[in-house]
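Shift notes (night). Ran SAM-dependent methyltransferase while the centrifuge was going.
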Amino acid sequence: MADQTAATHDLLAYVREVSLRDDDLLRELRETTAGLPGGSALQVMAEEGQLLALLVGLTGARTVLEIGTYTGYSTLCMARALPADGLLVSCDIDDRWPAIGADFWKRDGVDARIDLRIGDAAATLEALLAERGPESVDLVFIDADKANYLRYYEASLALLRAGGLIVVDNTLFFGRVADPAAVDPETAGVRALNQVLHEDPRVELSLLVMADGITLVRKR
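Came back to this:
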């Protein structure tokens, strides 16, 4: 049986060379984010942004929910992939970092598709369920505080239509999920979600060994 290919520096460079389709605006937003405190560790890598856009198109999504905006790189990638009348609701606890992305959204002409909600994400998800009703979202991207991942997952599943997709970021969490000595709330939150997903009969899943771990979850 074939084993996992070792991801050497040269091989990753080759993958980027033959698969990444980039542009000046995306590069500028990544560079701006990298200059922020912790920006390089927190931002979505370019290949992941491209994957998110592909998944929006593959699922035919018209309504996307994003939990965790940061500087809005993933927001921009997914909004671009939506139809002109599509909607992306993005949630963040503070407007400081999303304000950076908002300028790029406007420059790209996709700002009208983006509904930024500032506040506690769990409360925002409850409000969305009341506003839009269950099974009203086509795709969800979860990339927020890891300690609450299980809570976000359950709320997202209620909002997601049958056949819809949840994409969960950081499900390997810098490798700490496999370290028994790592018991901090963030690692424990990711580890708990991974276990729940593995046993959840309501969904199909695949954990991709890409970036910091990306889990695809399809609602049955």
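Residues 9 and 178 are 23 Å apart (CA to CA). The first strand starts at residue 63 and ends at 67.
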